[in-house]
Design brief:
The protein is of the alpha+beta class. The protein has a domain at 44-121. Helices cover 39% and strands 33% of the residues. The protein contains 1 helix and 4 strands; from the N terminus they run αββββ. It has one helix at 2-53; strands spanning 61-65, 73-86, 89-103, 108-117.
Length: 133
């Protein structure tokens, strides 16, 4: 009888251990996915901010791999011109800038886009007249 109780107790212990380890594995995968999403979002926001601040040209660029320690990641900028018109006169000269961040090792892709003004030398509008003295 005592041997049967020990066998039942061991069976229950191992059953609970398997369930807990399965849950732990799922949690670890979720944290890894969250970390990858956060890193990709951070890289995408950084690249788009560089375009918005003028540190990076508003032009198609990439795909370009990052340097160490981000060698598994690459970035690409895609620009689509948009022209908002009132009848035939251009009102706004805008571009849709899409930043694509990829992790080649894990097959993960993150995209972020924004509408930005097209620089004067690329657009059709004339530069504003100097209002100052």
């Amino acid at each position: 009888m005592a041997l049967l109780e020990v066998v039942v107790a061991l069976a229950l212990f191992f059953g609970v251990a398997v369930v807990l380890l399965g849950g732990l594995t799922t949690c670890v995968r979720g944290v890894q996915q969250l970390r990858m999403t956060a890193q990709a979002s951070d890289l995408a926001v950084t690249a788009l901010s560089e375009v918005q601040m003028g540190l990076r040209a508003v032009a198609d660029d990439g795909p370009t791999p990052y340097e160490e320690p981000l060698q598994d990641w690459s970035w690409q900028v895609t620009v689509t011109p948009l022209m908002m018109t009132a009848t035939t006169t251009p009102v706004l000269d805008l571009s849709r800038v899409e930043v694509t961040i990829r992790n080649t090792a894990r097959g993960y892709t993150q995209r972020l886009y924004d509408i930005v003004p097209t620089p004067m030398d690329m657009g059709t509008t004339a530069p504003p007249a100097d209002a100052g003295g």
